[in-house]
Design goal:
- This protein is α/β, with parallel strands linked by helices.
- The chain is 20% helix and 26% strand.
- Strand 7 and strand 8 form a beta hairpin.
- The chain binds zinc ion (2 copies).
- One zinc ion (ZN) binds next to loops.
């Protein structure tokens, strides 16, 4: 199994990076984690076959994690996709998806897809299986609008991938990421503490308890991107592949 960072940028395009989108593929699985506004061109740049993707997990409804869905669905329709697609995310996802589709492409939310599209709400700490992908969401803390906010613990093909999503430090990240083979953690700032986002220095004291086998930092601001050489941690870059 492998995870490819299709995009690991923030909402502001820091470092010219694409919005958040990770592509996981293996013998039995093919799914995305988040689909930000710039994710369709990012997927195309990497030559990723969108029609093979079975599942898209959404962490929250900010444009840099969710805003790519109208483009992806439009592309699927024009490409005459036939394979069923599941989009799963926080409570309210069906309404939010219709709203963003209407805002970007009027009447598109009422277009009947040529393929079977299922939109599924996930509840915190209720595990759901989608084919060979087992997903456990955890509530995280990321402000007043654009939520609910979910981190994910994902089990597939004998491996565990955890993703913090956007969040300030919260204790739920411990069960979400404990002993994970790969923990993708937001590190928006190096040591500046702000509401709703995680800084590396806030995360660092918890890493020993989390004990992830591998940590990759993502969603970095210019503050972090200017320090990549001296961080001592693996930082994501667009196109980077992690073998699991
Ligand atoms: Zn974000
Ligand atoms: Zn966000």
């Amino acid at each position: 199994m492998q995870l490819r960072f299709v995009g690991c940028g923030d909402a502001l395009g820091s470092g010219g990076r694409f919005n958040t989108c990770f592509h996981v593929t293996g013998k039995q699985v093919n799914f995305l984690i988040d689909c930000g506004a710039s994710s369709l061109p990012a997927l195309k740049r990497l030559g990723i076959a969108r029609e093979d993707i079975d599942l898209i997990l959404i962490t929250h409804f900010h444009g840099d994690h969710f805003g790519g869905l109208p483009f992806l669905l439009l592309d699927a329709q024009f490409a005459r996709r036939t394979r069923p697609l599941v989009i799963a995310g926080p409570a309210g996802i069906e309404t939010r998806l219709a709203q963003v589709m209407e805002a970007l492409f009027e009447h598109s939310s009422k277009t009947k897809q040529r393929f079977e599209l299922s939109v599924v709400e996930l509840q915190p700490e209720q595990t759901r299986a989608f084919g060979a992908v087992k997903v456990t969401p955890y509530s995280v803390v990321h402000g007043e609008s654009g939520g609910p906010f979910l981190a994910y613990r994902i089990e597939a093909e004998g491996r565990v991938i955890a993703y913090s999503a956007d969040t300030e430090w919260t204790e739920t990240l411990i069960p979400a990421a404990r002993d994970a083979d790969l923990f993708i953690a937001e590190a928006y700032y190096y040591d500046k503490v702000v509401k709703n986002h995680l800084s590396l220095k806030t995360l660092e004291p918890h890493l020993a308890e989390i004990k992830a086998k591998r940590l990759v930092l993502t969603h970095m601001s210019d503050d972090m991107l200017g320090r990549l050489e001296t961080l001592g941690y693996t930082a994501a870059s667009d196109g980077m592949v992690v073998e699991l």
